[in-house]
Automatic annotation (TrEMBL):
Classification of source organism: Bacteria, Pseudomonadati, Pseudomonadota, Alphaproteobacteria, Hyphomicrobiales
Modified residues (N6-acetyllysine): 611
Family of the protein in this entry: Belongs to the ATP-dependent AMP-binding enzyme family.
EC number(s) stated in the UniProt entry for this protein: 6.2.1.1
Superkingdom, taxonomy of origin: Bacteria
InterPro entries in the record: Ac_CoA_lig, ACAS_N, AMP-bd_C, AMP-bd_C_sf, AMP-binding_CS, AMP-dep_synth/lig_dom, ANL_N_sf
Binding of ATP, residues: 389-391, 413-418, 502, 517, 528
Protein name: Acetyl-coenzyme A synthetase
């Protein structure tokens, strides 16, 4: 793509930003040539209880994958996010909360944050939660979700946040997998004027999990809507009552740098979601440094990331990174189009937001609603825009830049993953020219490379699979309870390298263009989902005999979910049944997994050994069936004609 548009760094930005091009080159070179020196210095941005003497101790050797950073240091993450700011900025706002209704907001100072987090930590302690215990957090986007995460960090409990849009079954699986016996939830959530029955879902999930041998001692319930909920005697506790019974101060637990901070479940190409485990020291250093430099965060800036705390973006760039930097971080409970399509920009004006970070799917949806909803707002406070979660198409990038940012704000397209803990590839705003659609260049300490399918390193301008050659402090350490799965998933495909699962192109300037997943992971509206998860939900339906799920390009969502379903003998393929299956998947996984297109297929294309040929199914789903490649190896080549004839996605 030599004809790619380039937006050079303006002199003004080179001047104001922490990092300009010369500094980037100098720091980058040092970060890869002398990682111990570089990260040893950078880690001073964090307060350590006991200083580390060792910096990097990592091995990508397939037979001995082991990742440790700052391993003999001790610290507490909540102290880094709260206590250390009290001397200088106790009365500065830490969290601005904007509710679902525009009339609803709150400002929480660092002093208040300290008190709320300590009280909640004491409530957990009073009910037996100890260092190393797993606490499941299933909450709407309210400040108590952040308090809960930080309170866990304070006492050394490991939090597992489950997105509030997941179904009771998905929640049950996550409670079971990490054997969590303390759950924090709320009566109901509210989004776009609609209520979500979080406590009722939690009750169902626990019932399911307990049938499978899990045991939940307590459920702590935050009152959000005041809706009617059942409280189970002896197990369920009201947050507002409990916090009154405990002290307003809670001494922090001294944690080793490699003690777990949290588990976050994410989808892979096979099996159940895996518990991505992050530890304390490296994660805090990495989220804090990336938040400062990528968003060029200066003291006093108002920063807003629109993600949900149920995803890694919410962990790293609503809670830990910003709070470690003493920032003012905005938490938004609602959705972009409620009460109107101007909501995002109205919130920017209301709170004077300087830095705004969102997902391409939201940008595309708002772009579709027309410029007027944007241009009627001021947005004068905005200085920098960010994008995350999926590839951003150049049209959406340009619209974001031109209409939302009025060509005044650089756009940082940030590529990263739940596994990476923080941003790995992005244009630093004062240093690196932006190209719409490209995440451009690596952050400090990150060494991306492109390999072919055999694992050979490709040089220069090229295209292939994206790997990372060496570790950075924010990297996940293991899959909770299954280190072998960690090794097999990330280090077995291209031995000696971390495999991202993404494909990419590198252009002649050395800029990276992420082209999307090369495995069976879908990215629907920026939400990660395994095709295998949707398939297993479908085949759990009594009328379904077999199912194959693939992604196809979708204007707003990036990718849509296309399901091929073979019914049990004698079942009628009706529109009613399609609706029933759609609802079924929603209730099995959650609304984010709702199938976009369902095609009833009398047979699926399989090899003679019975393997489903997904390549063919993908092509048909993409409405690109003129060149299906060699179908002669199929057990029954005729099924392909039927699939093409009844395809659902006609241009
Ligand atoms: C995709 C979200 C292109 C990618 C932080 C990755 C992106 C997956 C970008 C991780 C981007 C994320 N450009 N693709 N800027 N950011 N992705 O774990 O496929 O929810 O592997 O982490 O999202 O999704 P996850």
């Amino acid at each position: 793509m030599s004809d790619a548009k380039v937006h050079s760094v303006t002199p003004e930005w080179a001047e104001r930003a922490f990092i300009d091009w010369d500094k980037y080159q100098e720091m980058y070179a040092r970060s890869v040539e002398d990682p111990n020196g570089f990260w040893g210095e950078q880690a001073q941005r964090i307060d350590w209880i006991k200083p580390f003497t060792k910096v990097k101790n990592t091995s990508y050797d397939y037979h001995n994958v082991s990742i440790k950073w700052f391993e003999d240091g001790t610290l507490n993450a909540s102290v880094n996010c709260i206590d250390r700011h009290l001397a200088d900025r106790a009365d500065q706002v830490a969290i601005i909360w904007e509710g679902d209704e525009p009339s609803d907001d709150k400002h929480i100072t660092y002093r208040q944050l300290h008190e709320y987090v300590c009280r909640l930590a004491n409530v957990m302690k009073a009910h037996g939660v100890k260092k190393g215990d797993r606490v499941t957090i299933y909450m709407p986007m309210i400040p108590e979700a952040a308090y809960a995460m930080l309170a866990c960090a304070r006492i050394g409990a490991i939090h597992s946040v489950v997105f509030g849009g997941f179904s009771p079954d998905s929640l049950a699986n996550r409670i079971e997998d990490c054997r969590s016996d303390f759950v924090i939830t709320s009566d109901e959530g509210v989004r776009g004027g609609r209520k979500i029955p979080l406590k009722a879902n939690t009750d169902k999930a626990i019932e399911r999990a307990e049938k499978d041998g899990a045991s939940v001692r307590n459920v702590l319930v935050v009152k959000r809507t005041g809706g009617d909920v059942a409280m189970k005697e002896g197990r369920d506790l009201w947050y507002h009552e409990e916090i009154e019974k405990v002290e307003a101060d809670c001494p922090p637990e001294e944690m080793g740098a490699e003690d777990p901070l949290f588990i976050l479940y994410t989808s892979g190409s096979t099996g159940k979601p895996k518990g991505v485990m992050h530890t304390t020291g490296g994660y805090m250093v990495y989220t804090s440094i990336t938040h400062q430099y990528v968003f060029d965060y200066h003291d006093g800036d108002i920063y807003w990331c629109t993600a949900d705390v149920g995803w890694v973006t919410g962990h790293s760039y609503i809670v830990y990174g910003p709070l470690a930097n003493g920032a003012t971080t905005l938490m938004f409970e609602g959705v972009p189009n409620y009460p109107s399509g101007s909501r995002f920009w109205e919130v920017c004006d209301k709170h004077g937001v300087n830095i705004f970070y969102t997902a391409p799917t939201a940008i595309r949806a708002l772009m579709g609603a027309g410029d007027e909803a944007v241009t009627k707002t001021s947005r004068k406070s905005l200085r920098l825009l960010g994008s995350v979660g999926e590839p951003i198409n150049p049209e959406a990038w340009e619209w974001y830049y031109r209409v939302v940012g009025e060509e005044r704000c650089p756009v940082v397209d940030t590529w990263w993953q739940t596994e990476t803990g923080g941003i790995l590839i992005t244009p630093l705003p004062g240093a690196i020219a932006q190209k719409p659609g490209s995440a451009t260049k690596p952050f400090f300490g990150v060494q991306p490379a492109v390999v072919d399918n055999e694992g050979n390193l490709l040089e220069g301008a090229t295209e292939g699979n994206l790997v990372i050659l060496d570790s950075w402090p924010g990297q996940m350490r293991t899959v909770y309870g299954d280190h072998d799965r960690f090794v097999q998933t990330y280090f077995a495909t291209y031995k000696g390298n971390y495999f991202t699962g993404d494909g990419c192109r590198r252009d002649a300037d050395g800029d990276y263009w992420i082209t999307g997943r090369v495995d069976d992971v879908l990215n629907v509206s920026g939400h990660r989902m395994g095709t295998a998860e949707v398939e297993s939900a479908l085949v759990a339906h009594p009328k379904v005999s077999e199912a194959a799920v693939v992604g196809y390009p979708h204007n707003i969502k990036g990718q849509g979910i296309y399901c091929y379903v073979t019914l049990m003998a004698g079942e009628e393929p009706t529109d009613e049944l399609k609706k029933e299956l759609r609802n079924w998947v929603r209730s099995e996984i959650g609304p984010i997994a709702s199938p976009d297109l369902i095609q009833f297929a009398p047979g699926l294309p399989k090899t003679r050994s019975g393997k489903i040929m997904r390549r063919i199914l993908r092509k048909i789903a993409e409405d690109d069936f003129s060149n299906l490649g060699d179908t002669s190896t199929l057990a029954e080549p005729a099924v392909v004609d039927d699939l093409v004839e009844h395809r659902q996605n006609r241009a």
